[in-house]
Amino acid sequence: MRYKLLGNSGIRVSEVCLGTMSFGDVWGFGADEQESGRIISAFADAGGNFLDTANKYHEGQSEQIVGKHIEGDRDRWVVATKYTLSMRGDDPNASGNSRKNMTRSVEGSLRRLGTDYIDLLWVHAWDFTTPVEEVMRGLDDLVRAGKVLYLGISDAPAWVVSRANTIAELRGWTPFVAQQMQYSLLERTIEREALPMADAFGMATTAWAPLAAGVLTGKHTRGGGKPDTKRSNDDRLNEHNLSIARVVDEIADQLDRSSAQVAVNWVRQRGDKLIPIVGARKVEQIQDVLTCLDFRLDEAHMAKLNDVSRIELGFPREFLGADAIRNIVYGDLAAQIDLPPGAQKPR
Question: Is 57 one of the annotated active-site residues of the chain?
């Protein structure tokens, strides 16, 4: 395990993050407390120190399980949790990004986690109702009070994040150091705006669902059977996505690795500030995925995966990336100029 700085911060986090949405059984699925403990221990044994949870996961049970299993060595862990999602359906103020919900959500998370500080607090989702200024000032107050150390934002448009961080910079408030977004070989649309925005602000990106809810593990593409895409409720099981999964399987077989390891490594190798979030319901699953740390995909394999999963970046990215336009913008020596990521040709 290696460690990365979390965006423009000094905190060091493991290059893979353990997601805990599977910890608990209130939602009718997941790992019980004992198995969750084994998963955390396996992650720690591999050098992992970055845990991601949320107050909403299993209605608070996930935070409670995490708290019990880290209490003996709390300061070793970088614990990230979230607020925004509804914790009480009959109360209009028990959800959203408001200062009221923010404050009581953090107090509840601190109790369930059994700690007096949260390393990284995520805004779980943008609610489109709370003013950006209210969110950023409220979060900054939590940091100044010592209840939260770092800030992040999840599932929000790039324009919201960039506006929030610009306001924070101008007013001397605490900015977001990371964003959390869905990213995998089957979901690359954040490459259009969110990833270039994060690069511009020096933010890290933690990628949830790098295995696309199991589609990239080989469970639907190995064994000879063909998934019945017409009967499945998972709209990811279409022929385009399954064709990508088969390429993952092919490369995994060539390397004598699992498909999950290949899919996670593709995310890891797409950028220095990308950190995949991996989850598990069984200890064997996390042990398998963490073996991705033992190897890297070579350029040929990365190129093949990039090509089979390529998306249209649209205007203006495709326009500005065209050779003719690049030569007009940068001159005849465009190929010889070291350009920042946002100005480079799409891969």
Answer: yes
